[in-house]
Specification:
By secondary structure, this protein is an all-alpha fold. The protein has a single domain, classed as MetI-like (MetI-like fold). It has 10 helices and no strands.
Length: 221
């Protein structure tokens, strides 16, 4: 038991690694601040395209959503970071992570938004149009608010997954939380920084998960 505590819960090593982990946490939050809004916007556009009555919008939208949902995010990240330079496009680690996560999460957010748009009955659109609203006004003021409310738990759940997804940015030497913890582990020859990183993820995400569960119960009632 003492060896387990020394290897995974060494308080002295955790305190020495804390500044490095704090910088990694800042980078993780920066990635989230870039990827989540872009993913939501891209997902909304993908959902609008895939539910469009125009085939030249609907079929490409559905194809792109299926493609980027099927590709593992790690493979997509490696392709963007290490594959694009062969086409003359060289991205920094942060840009590569942002582009790869944007493509991946836009597909998932897009499928969620699509389900929300479909859940709003045609009667809502017809009633809004009968009052004199244009198609754009109906979408913005009537359909989208209801669609978003209907799939809000799924949007929040996917956002939690985005935060956890940032951990794979370490494969391109991005200095996010997991990369910082692994670097501290390699220096100290002790796994305590990884335990601390896991605790930070837990402290960030557990309140969100609990609030999500509570919201889902309220919807069920």
């Amino acid at each position: 038991m003492d060896q387990l505590i020394q290897q995974f819960f060494n308080w002295d090593i955790m305190m020495r690694a804390w500044p490095m982990l704090l910088r990694g946490l800042g980078m993780t939050l920066l990635i989230c601040a870039a990827v989540i809004p872009l993913g939501l916007l891209g997902g909304l556009l993908a959902a609008l395209a895939s539910t469009s009555a125009r085939p030249w919008l609907r079929w490409p939208g559905m194809a792109l959503v299926d493609l980027f949902r099927a590709l593992p995010p790690l493979v997509l990240l490696i392709f963007v970071y290490a594959g694009l330079p062969f086409a003359g496009i060289r991205l920094s680690p942060f840009a590569a992570v942002t582009v790869a996560f944007f493509l991946n999460n836009s597909a998932y957010y897009g499928e969620i938004f699509r389900a929300g748009l479909i859940s709003v009955g045609q009667g809502q659109t017809d009633a809004a149009r009968s009052t004199g609203l244009t198609a754009r006004q109906t979408l913005i003021h009537v359909v989208l608010p209801q669609a978003t409310r209907n799939v809000l738990p799924d949007l929040i759940s996917n956002t939690v997954e985005v935060v956890k997804l940032t951990s794979i940015a370490s494969v391109v030497s991005m200095g996010e939380l997991l990369h910082a913890a692994d670097l501290a582990r390699s220096v100290t020859y002790n796994a305590s920084p990884l335990t601390m990183a896991a605790g930070i993820y837990l402290l960030m995400l557990w309140p969100v998960v609990r609030l999500l569960s509570r919201y889902q119960r309220q919807i069920a009632v």
